[in-house]
UniProtKB/TrEMBL annotation:
Transmembrane segments: none annotated. The keyword Glycoprotein does not apply. Keywords: Hydrolase. This is Histidine phosphatase family protein. GO terms for molecular function: hydrolase activity. It comes from Caenimonas sedimenti. InterPro entries: His_Pase_superF_clade-1 (IPR013078), His_PPase_superfam (IPR029033), Mito_Ser/Thr_phosphatase (IPR051021). The keyword Hydrolase applies.
Length: 223
């Protein structure tokens, strides 16, 4: 039996011109995850990450917190969907930067609607793969882990979409459930799978044990 740890990236720059960049807090969250792994005595035999900047920055922070270095395997299939392209399929006009709770709620209502239509094949967001191909990108990473790391610990750094998709794929949930899982995932949360050469089994989802102390209450974020 092996254990796969999927970590969502640290807080990125929601509402900024370039979302794909960790905030100052995002960097701190990433290092804190690494400190937690080191404290628990968890060592990784395999390191895999999506190719987005926030994935690489988060992995760098984790390794810093663990006081170790290591080469990782880049996996494009672990990259996040383009939320702006998804929203554009149901709202063709550019959204203003959210500045109020209602604007944030409006943003995520549109995202939920766009995701539902993309997953059902009704819309094709510009520059994005079909949902079937998106799932294949995620499941191929799971296949790689099972085929190459049996009996070992593996760390994957990616985004909320691929993590919720991996959970939905393993559990066989409907697309609606995957969406709900996706929209509730926290930055640097840890999702664990046990795995054999034949299958993955969900152990935990969206946990933040590294932020359990009251001094980290302000470090719990979702964007």
């Amino acid at each position: 039996m092996g254990t796969l740890y999927l970590v969502r990236h640290g807080q990125a720059s929601f509402g900024a011109a370039d979302y794909d960049n960790l905030s100052e807090l995002g960097h701190k969250q990433s290092v804190r995850v690494g400190e937690y792994f080191a404290h628990k005595g968890i060592h990784f035999d395999g390191l895999i990450a999506g190719t987005l900047r926030r994935h690489k920055q988060t992995l760098e922070g984790i390794l810093k917190g663990m006081n170790r270095a290591g080469e990782h395997l880049s996996w494009e299939g672990l990259n996040e969907y383009d939320s702006e392209a998804v929203i554009a399929t149901v709202h063709p006009h550019k959204l203003e930067k959210p500045t109020s709770p209602e604007m944030y709620r409006h943003h995520f209502r549109l995202l939920r609607d766009g995701l539902s239509q993309w997953m059902s094949g009704v819309v094709s967001p510009r520059g994005m793969p079909s949902y079937t191909d998106f799932v294949t990108g995620v499941s191929s990473a799971l296949d790689h882990v099972r085929a190459n790391h049996y009996g070992k610990n593996v760390l994957v750094v990616t985004s909320g979409g691929p993590i919720s998709t991996a959970v939905g794929y393993v559990l066989g949930t409907p697309a609606e459930t995957t969406i709900e899982l996706n929209l509730r995932i926290r930055n640097t949360s840890i999702t664990e799978f046990a795995f054999t050469p034949k299958r993955h089994m969900l152990l935990t989802y969206n946990g933040i044990p590294h932020l359990d102390d009251a001094k980290y209450n302000d470090w719990v974020t979702y964007s």
